[in-house]
């Protein structure tokens, strides 16, 4: 494989004296799904926010398709057109209908004519089982429906890279499946996705690469198979045994 | 891959069993009967209490030693009828001042609020000016401002300064209320959750587009009730312009009252103001209730 789509080198981020990310190296190649796993406060969300330039990094570089995102001279608005992000709390715009939520960026940022933007939006909604919700406002939708609408909104601008920040964490357990279905579908269509997640089963089945973060460091990364079935690091084993709720006193994961 | 195993059943509403056979139980029927009776009893009690209260107040007023004087000085029917056409004519000017001032206040308030929340370095002088404006004009009593503008502005003898007293009054009201409304709108802009800004910026919207399409609409929606309260206050404060002399309702009442040595015209003017402010207040209440419900609905997600 040639140059990765996303390349992170030596990334450091701190809030005041608290170092949230230290020396992060990460590659995401095209058409890959990379899952970030790790406990709360391990730095997964911060890493995604840095990649989307919502937070300013304190050291290191991030390149997207050869363009340095960490350059302060960069036109962030232009660079952001290539990245789509979905948040844990959906963050749909409550004053706009679902359709207007999705067409806002294509129309205002990319100058797509209204009719064409709405056509694309309706196709996306239909694909995600929300065809009848186009005219509803977000507060009339269930959490799972809102999150699928938020994914549709992120996809509407046809970004090169998708960032998913624990998109199922705010959902009731029975609604998690419908959102993960959508993500699995995106992978089949060849999108490039970097996602923070607590859904271990899902990460295991969908991810090409899994990175385990702890205290702002990537402790271990490898294929999903390797990280889940034969973790090299003690910390990874400890984490997995905790979240997978398997006994195993020595920390090994029985699979 | 099977992520569908936990999928929620959709369209459950269509499969609910028919409910035709339902009859309320005897206990429920009895409960409903009791509730109806209790409601009837409460209605009676509240009606009787209100009536007693009104009678007591009326008796207190009527038995006071000065009642006869008050009755003839404030509640003179003929006086009211005579004064009413002039009062109404004057009140029409109040309404016009109110509407014109309201439009200008919204524009000025929006401008100050926007200037104060943006961070563009080139706008720094404007930002300082807006902050100074709000600080100064919120601190000056509106009546004082009416005097200052009404008598001070013409005294400058600048070219093109309006000399119509009611126009000067409107300028004073706009300056005073613009500062308040600017602060209300600024609070509204700050009340929109930062995640909304993040989401908009992440979609590639520029700072300005984010403000225009995402933050501002939500901000305005959040502050409609307090804005309406300010406008109800403004509607009353149009009477302050009376000190400059234009023939609005209060001034008309004053003229008539001084002429006849009878205060009833003041009461007439008060009734006119109430006739407008009460519906406005009810309307504001309703909006506030609806906004509260919406906030709860969003928080309860």
UniProtKB/TrEMBL annotation, chain A:
<dbReference type="Pfam" id="PF00005">
    <property type="entry name" value="ABC_tran"/>
</dbReference>
<dbReference type="InterPro" id="IPR050086">
    <property type="entry name" value="MetN_ABC_transporter-like"/>
</dbReference>
<dbReference type="GO" id="GO:0015424">
    <property type="term" value="F:ABC-type amino acid transporter activity"/>
</dbReference>
<keyword id="KW-0472">Membrane</keyword>
<dbReference type="GO" id="GO:0005886">
    <property type="term" value="C:plasma membrane"/>
</dbReference>
<keyword id="KW-0547">Nucleotide-binding</keyword>
<keyword id="KW-0067">ATP-binding</keyword>
<dbReference type="GO" id="GO:0016887">
    <property type="term" value="F:ATP hydrolysis activity"/>
</dbReference>
<dbReference type="InterPro" id="IPR017871">
    <property type="entry name" value="ABC_transporter-like_CS"/>
</dbReference>
<comment type="similarity">
    <text>Belongs to the ABC transporter superfamily.</text>
</comment>
<keyword id="KW-0029">Amino-acid transport</keyword>
<protein>
    <submittedName>
        <fullName>Peptide ABC transporter ATP-binding protein</fullName>
    </submittedName>
</protein>
<dbReference type="InterPro" id="IPR027417">
    <property type="entry name" value="P-loop_NTPase"/>
</dbReference>
<dbReference type="InterPro" id="IPR003439">
    <property type="entry name" value="ABC_transporter-like_ATP-bd"/>
</dbReference>
<dbReference type="InterPro" id="IPR030679">
    <property type="entry name" value="ABC_ATPase_HisP-typ"/>
</dbReference>
<feature type="domain" description="ABC transporter">
    <location>
        <begin position="6"/>
        <end position="240"/>
    </location>
</feature>
<keyword id="KW-0813">Transport</keyword>
<dbReference type="InterPro" id="IPR003593">
    <property type="entry name" value="AAA+_ATPase"/>
</dbReference>
<dbReference type="GO" id="GO:0005524">
    <property type="term" value="F:ATP binding"/>
</dbReference>
<keyword id="KW-1003">Cell membrane</keyword>
Automatic annotation (TrEMBL), chain B:
<protein>
    <submittedName>
        <fullName>ABC transporter permease</fullName>
    </submittedName>
</protein>
<keyword id="KW-1133">Transmembrane helix</keyword>
<dbReference type="GO" id="GO:0043190">
    <property type="term" value="C:ATP-binding cassette (ABC) transporter complex"/>
</dbReference>
<keyword id="KW-0812">Transmembrane</keyword>
<keyword id="KW-0029">Amino-acid transport</keyword>
<dbReference type="InterPro" id="IPR043429">
    <property type="entry name" value="ArtM/GltK/GlnP/TcyL/YhdX-like"/>
</dbReference>
<feature type="region of interest" description="Disordered">
    <location>
        <begin position="1"/>
        <end position="24"/>
    </location>
</feature>
<feature type="domain" description="ABC transmembrane type-1">
    <location>
        <begin position="91"/>
        <end position="284"/>
    </location>
</feature>
<feature type="transmembrane region" description="Helical">
    <location>
        <begin position="266"/>
        <end position="284"/>
    </location>
</feature>
<feature type="transmembrane region" description="Helical">
    <location>
        <begin position="136"/>
        <end position="156"/>
    </location>
</feature>
<comment type="similarity">
    <text>Belongs to the binding-protein-dependent transport system permease family. HisMQ subfamily.</text>
</comment>
<dbReference type="GO" id="GO:0022857">
    <property type="term" value="F:transmembrane transporter activity"/>
</dbReference>
<feature type="transmembrane region" description="Helical">
    <location>
        <begin position="95"/>
        <end position="115"/>
    </location>
</feature>
<dbReference type="InterPro" id="IPR010065">
    <property type="entry name" value="AA_ABC_transptr_permease_3TM"/>
</dbReference>
<dbReference type="InterPro" id="IPR000515">
    <property type="entry name" value="MetI-like"/>
</dbReference>
<keyword id="KW-0813">Transport</keyword>
<dbReference type="Pfam" id="PF00528">
    <property type="entry name" value="BPD_transp_1"/>
</dbReference>
<dbReference type="GO" id="GO:0006865">
    <property type="term" value="P:amino acid transport"/>
</dbReference>
<dbReference type="InterPro" id="IPR035906">
    <property type="entry name" value="MetI-like_sf"/>
</dbReference>
<keyword id="KW-1003">Cell membrane</keyword>
<feature type="transmembrane region" description="Helical">
    <location>
        <begin position="42"/>
        <end position="62"/>
    </location>
</feature>
<keyword id="KW-0472">Membrane</keyword>
């Amino acid at each position: 494989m040639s140059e990765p789509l996303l390349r992170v080198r030596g990334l450091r981020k701190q809030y005041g004296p608290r170092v949230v990310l230290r020396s992060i190296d990460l590659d995401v190649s095209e058409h890959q799904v990379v899952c970030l796993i790790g406990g709360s406060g391990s730095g997964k969300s911060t890493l995604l926010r840095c990649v989307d330039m919502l937070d300013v990094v304190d050291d290191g570089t991030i390149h997207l398709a050869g363009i340095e995102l960490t350059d302060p001279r960069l036109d962030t608005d232009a660079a952001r057109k290539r990245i789509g992000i979905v948040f844990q709390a959906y963050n749909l715009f409550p004053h706009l209908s679902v359709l207007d939520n999705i067409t806002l960026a294509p129309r205002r940022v990319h100058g797509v004519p209204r009719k064409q933007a709405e056509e694309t939006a309706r196709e996306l909604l239909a694909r995600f089982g929300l065809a009848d919700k186009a005219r509803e406002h977000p507060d009339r939708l269930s959490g799972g429906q809102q999150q699928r609408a938020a994914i549709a909104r992120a996809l509407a601008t046809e970004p090169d890279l998708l960032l998913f920040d624990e998109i199922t964490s705010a959902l009731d357990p029975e609604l998690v499946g419908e959102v993960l279905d959508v993500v699995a579908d995106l992978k089949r269509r060849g999108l490039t996705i970097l996602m923070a997640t607590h859904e271990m089963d899902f990460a295991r089945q969908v991810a090409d690469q899994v990175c385990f973060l702890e205290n702002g460091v990537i402790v271990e990364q490898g294929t999903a198979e390797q990280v889940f079935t034969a973790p090299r690091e003690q910390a990874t084993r400890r984490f997995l045994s905790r979240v997978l709720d398997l006994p195993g006193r020595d920390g090994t994961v029985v699979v | 891959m099977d992520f569908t195993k936990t999928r929620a059943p959709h369209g459950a509403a269509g499969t609910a069993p028919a409910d035709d056979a339902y009859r309320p139980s005897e206990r429920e029927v009895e409960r409903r009967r009791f509730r109806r009776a209790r409601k009837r009893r409460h209605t009676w009690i509240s009606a009787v209490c209100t009536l007693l209260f009104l009678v007591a107040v009326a008796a207190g007023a009527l038995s006071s030693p000065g009642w006869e004087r008050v009755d003839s000085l404030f509640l003179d029917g003929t006086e009211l009828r005579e004064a009413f056409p002039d009062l109404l004519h004057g009140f029409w000017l109040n309404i016009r001042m109110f509407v014109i001032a309201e439009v200008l206040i919204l524009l000025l308030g929006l401008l100050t609020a926007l200037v104060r929340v943006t961070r563009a370095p080139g706008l720094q002088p404007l930002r300082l000016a807006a902050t100074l404006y709000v600080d100064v004009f919120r601190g000056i009593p509106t009546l004082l401002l009416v005097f200052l503008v009404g008598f001070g502005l013409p005294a400058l003898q600048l070219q093109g300064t309006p000399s119509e007293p009611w126009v000067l009054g409107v300028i004073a009201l706009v300056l005073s209320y613009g500062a308040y409304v600017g602060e209300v709108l600024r609070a509204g802009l700050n009340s929109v959750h930062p995640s909304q800004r993040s989401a908009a910026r992440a979609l590639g919207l520029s700072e300005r587009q984010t403000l225009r399409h995402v933050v501002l609409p939500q901000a305005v929606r959040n502050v409609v009730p307090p804005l309406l309260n300010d406008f109800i206050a403004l509607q009353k404060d149009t009477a302050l312009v009376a000190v400059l002399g234009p023939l609005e309702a209060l001034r008309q009442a004053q003229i008539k009252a001084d002429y006849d040595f009878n205060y009833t015209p003041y009461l007439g003017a008060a009734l006119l103001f109430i006739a407008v402010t009460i519906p406005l207040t009810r309307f504001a209440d309703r909006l506030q209730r609806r906004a509260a419900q919406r906030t709860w609905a969003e928080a309860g997600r």
